[in-house]
Design a protein that fits this description.
It is a multi-pass membrane protein. By secondary structure, this protein is an alpha+beta fold. Helices cover 62% and strands 11% of the residues. It is built from nine helices and six strands, in the order E-E-H-H-E-E-E-E-H-H-H-H-H-H-H. It is rod-shaped, with a radius of gyration of 35 Å.
Amino acid sequence: MSSLSESVLVLREKECERHPYLKEHLYFHTFDTSHIRFCKAESYPDHIVGTFAIPSKKENHAPIRFAYALDKEHLIFIDESGFVKSALKKITEQKNALHEDHGGLICLFLEYIIRNDLIYLTEYEDRLADMESHILSGEITHCDRKIMDCQKDILKRYHYYLQLSDLATVFEEEEDLLFSKEVKRYFGIYSDRIDRLKNQSQLLRDYVAQIQQVYQSQLDIRQNNIMKILTIVTTIFLPLSLIAGWYGMNFTNMPELAWKYGYLAVILVSLLIILFCIWLFKKMKFW
């Protein structure tokens, strides 16, 4: 067991099963944090319990999952990752009046887990801008996969802020048994910050949708260019195919066949047709 104070505890799963306070109050039906999927807070007359699932800012990393229980005398975390212990250590090292009670500590903890999120979202926006520039410059290889990954990441982040917003609302609307009015005021400020982060996430979702449209437009332009080239080549060779078909017919009385310069004349006519078509296409700005 890791004790940060007499009433603030960070326990591992096996320690929870032996902890008399948790067993008596039945705060958790199971202590397996690996099944946690959401950030939530469940309010009861004299206590609040809930879970956290914080999405990682690194690619292909699992979320940080832990549970908590809070009442007037106890603040208990169930964490296997070590994140909570490290976070509380950094929080308590700072001089802040909110350290005096559990509500203030929870408020500081909530601030801690989103401390760099605005920077992260700003950097994500820069990455999307770079992706858009590459697409517009014609570098569109495997961009569909990258866009899909970005959509998933931002959607997870957006849902995360929605859950934190609901959690903050539960804390803010608690019936003055666990939190002071001053702490509740901080929860209101925190809720406003979450709303701004949520709005920023929504803007990123819209930006990704815009990039997807740009990517699709570039694909359409590339496909149109390919079709234009094929159409031009087909148009140039259509009269040549006519000539080839014409002189490929098995007629023995065609005068050109007996002419000494007939073969050369057909070659010259074919070249003139090709040059005329190229000149005509350029004049009409087909390419």
